[in-house]
Structures are given as structure tokens and as C-alpha cells.
């Protein structure tokens, strides 16, 4: 089990290797110092609690639906740090937090794209507040178990890390008013790189993009994500340009850090509109990293309670080799 001394020593050794870089340590310390947290529970005895954690920026069109989805899936708490939104996202989050004590809102004032460090800190704070499982999610992701609710599924698992297959999708019509009831064209073949949920641990480190976690223990693969990656031309423009600016502030090579953002942000508005037209038809668009391996299936995942309840994606081929560490 993960609490045995040998496993704990392995976790400590792993995190020491992860923080061998002074720059990585500096970034983690900066995030811990500057991110403003809401009042969180103090007890470590919330047995079985499942928490979602996220950092968001200008996601007003989708974050409400994503919160509803997670809570309807039985997630006990959702901790979201707003990163300087100007479109009303922060106001919506604060309103939700006032109305529902399961929603907790923090403030992330650091513009630079220190995503790994920010998500690691949120996951750590969730652990301190009593989370047994942590789901590091993006605002545009709807997580599903293959049967039953998401939270109940995680509570039933014996592994320490559960990989989630990531299926990109776009709405058939740009900027739908109600994403939860919108028709999407979804790639039945998951992307090569997925996401992870994991048992909380004070020394777990979430990797950039939430694609992996430094967490000792067995790895499973039983989750899926419907990823509303692009939702209209204006959202595409905002996402790639804001993302590129934030990535540039890290001082890292943005062609490696966020290659698709860097590529797409260099194009004009007319070209972005053309990109959107292609992906909304279910066609591949390499400038946006939208592979469309297919089959491309029209679905309404906002109405699902489990993954692919009608079996319309039954022909997809998932890679069970694992996306986690």
C-alpha cells in the first residue's frame, strides 16, 4: 500500500529529483507565496473525499457547465484559482461560491504560465484540506467514468493514479449559448497524451498540462474526458494569444512549451476563422493541434452521466499503456 515506509521513501526520492532544478524550486515557492486561497477545511479526516482543482482565465462560456458537471458527478469540493479573468469568469465563480460551499475560489495573480507549479500547489492545498483524491481539470473538460459516477468510481479504485483518455471535441455551431445541451463533433480516438487523477499526497507534483503526476503507486486507466478544446473563432483567438503571452513570460522556449498556441497565434483573424470552419466540420487542423483521427461522431456529452452511455463510440481504440508516471 502507498502508506508503507518503502513507498513513502520512494515518493520522497521522486520529489527530490523533480525539484533538483533551482528554477523549478523558485517558481514553486513564488506560487505558494502569491496565490490567494479561500478559507479551506483544516481536517485531514475527510475519508473518501474527491476534489477537483483548476486554474482558469476567461472561461465564462464553459466554466459554469463544467462546475455543474463535476458536482453532479459526486465531486465533494471544487477549488478554482482565477488567473486575472476580465470576461466575468471570476464574478461567476464568486457567485457560485456564495451559493454553494462546495465551490471554493482563489486568486492567482501570476500571469506567467507556471501551470505545473500552480496545479501542484492547488493539489497540495486540497490534500491539506482533506481530499483523498484530486482531479486536476481544465475549465473545458468534462470527466467521466466508464460506469457510474466519477467520484464513486475513484473511491472504488485501489490504484494511486488513474489515467483519463482525452477526446477532443468542438460544437457544431460556434459559441453555443448552452454548452450543456449543445451538439459536438467528438473524436472517438483519444489523443496520444491524456490526463490524470490521483490519490492525494503532500509530495505529489502535477506535471504541466495535467498530463502526468509524480506519484508512487499503481496506475490504472478507466476514465475519459470530453474536451471542449475550441468553441468558436473568438475563443480560439483568445486562447492561443493569451496562452502564448503567458508562455513567453516564463522565459522558456514557447515552441516546446505551447507549440500549437505559438503556431496559431501567428495567424490573422481570417485564418483563424478558416481554422474554426475546418475543425467544426470534424476535419484535422494541424495549426491548432486538432488531429481528428476519427471516427468523428456527433454527440451531446453535456447530457451524459457516464461515458458514451448509448455506445456510439464503441468502435474507438484506446491505448491502455497509460499516460501517467
Secondary-structure topology with pairs:
Elements: H1 5-18, H2 22-34, E1 50-56, H3 60-72, E2 77-82, H4 89-99, E3 103-107, H5 115-129, E4 133-136, E5 141-145, H6 150-155, E6 161-171, E7 184-187, E8 195-199, E9 205-206, E10 213-214, E11 219-228, H7 233-248, H8 254-257, H9 259-265, H10 269-280, E12 296-299
Parallel strand pairs: 1-2, 1-4, 2-3, 6-11
Antiparallel strand pairs: 4-8, 5-11, 6-7, 6-8, 7-12, 9-10
What does this structure look like?
The protein is of the alpha/beta class. It is built from ten helices and twelve strands. The strands form two sheets. Strands 1, 2, 3, 4, 5, 6, 7, 8, 11 and 12 form a ten-stranded mixed sheet that branches. It has a two-stranded antiparallel ribbon with strand order 9-10. Helix 2 crosses helix 5. It is globular and about 55 Å long. The chain starts with a helix and ends in a 26-residue tail after the last strand. The C terminus is likely disordered.
Taken in chain order, the helices and strands follow as HHEHEHEHEEHEEEEEEHHHHE
What is the end-to-end distance? 17 Å
Roughly what is the average pLDDT, rounded to an integer? 88
- Which percent bin holds the helix content? 25-40%
State the shape: globular
The SS-based structural class is alpha/beta
Major sheet characteristics: 10 strands, mixed
Low-confidence stretches: 316-325
Number of strands: 12
Rg (C-alpha, Å): 19 Å
Counted by DSSP, the helix tally is: 10
Which strand-content bin applies to the residues? 15-25%
Amino acid at each position: 500500500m502507498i502508506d508503507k515506509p518503502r513507498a513513502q521513501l520512494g515518493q520522497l526520492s521522486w520529489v527530490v529529483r523533480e525539484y533538483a532544478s533551482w528554477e523549478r524550486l523558485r517558481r514553486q515557492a513564488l506560487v505558494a507565496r502569491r496565490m490567494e486561497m479561500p478559507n479551506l477545511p483544516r481536517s485531514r479526516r475527510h475519508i473518501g473525499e474527491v476534489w477537483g482543482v483548476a486554474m482558469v482565465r476567461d472561461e465564462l462560456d464553459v466554466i459554469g457547465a463544467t462546475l455543474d458537471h463535476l458536482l453532479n458527478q459526486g465531486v465533494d469540493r471544487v477549488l478554482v484559482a482565477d488567473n486575472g479573468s476580465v470576461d466575468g469568469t471570476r464574478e461567476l465563480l464568486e457567485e457560485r461560491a456564495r451559493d454553494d460551499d462546495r465551490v471554493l475560489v482563489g486568486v492567482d495573480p501570476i500571469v506567467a504560465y507556471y501551470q505545473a507549479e500552480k496545479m501542484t500547489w492547488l493539489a497540495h492545498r486540497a490534500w491539506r484540506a482533506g481530499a483523498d483524491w484530486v482531479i486536476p481539470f481544465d475549465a473545458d473538460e468534462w470527466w467521466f467514468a466508464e460506469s457510474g459516477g466519477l467520484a464513486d468510481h475513484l473511491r472504488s479504485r485501489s490504484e494511486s493514479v488513474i489515467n483519463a483518455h482525452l477526446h477532443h471535441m468542438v460544437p457544431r455551431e460556434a459559441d453555443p449559448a448552452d454548452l450543456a445541451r449543445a451538439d459536438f463533433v467528438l473524436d472517438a480516438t483519444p489523443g496520444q497524451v491524456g490526463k490524470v487523477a490521483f490519490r492525494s499526497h503532500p509530495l505529489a507534483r502535477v506535471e504541466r498540462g495535467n498530463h502526468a503526476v509524480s506519484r508512487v503507486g499503481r496506475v490504472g486507466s478507466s476514465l475519459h474526458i470530453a474536451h471542449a478544446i475550441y468553441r468558436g473563432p473568438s475563443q480560439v483567438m483568445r486562447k492561443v494569444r493569451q496562452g502564448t503571452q503567458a508562455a513567453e513570460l516564463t522565459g522558456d522556449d514557447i515552441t516546446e512549451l505551447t507549440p500549437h498556441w505559438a503556431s496559431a497565434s501567428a495567424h490573422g483573424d481570417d485564418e483563424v476563422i478558416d481554422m474554426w470552419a475546418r475543425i467544426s466540420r470534424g476535419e484535422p487542423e494541424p495549426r491548432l493541434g486538432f488531429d481528428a483521427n476519427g471516427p468523428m461522431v456527433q454527440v451531446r456529452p453535456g447530457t451524459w452521466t457516464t461515458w458514451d452511455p448509448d455506445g456510439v463510440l464503441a468502435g474507438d481504440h484506446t491505448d491502455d499503456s497509460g499516460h501517467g508516471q
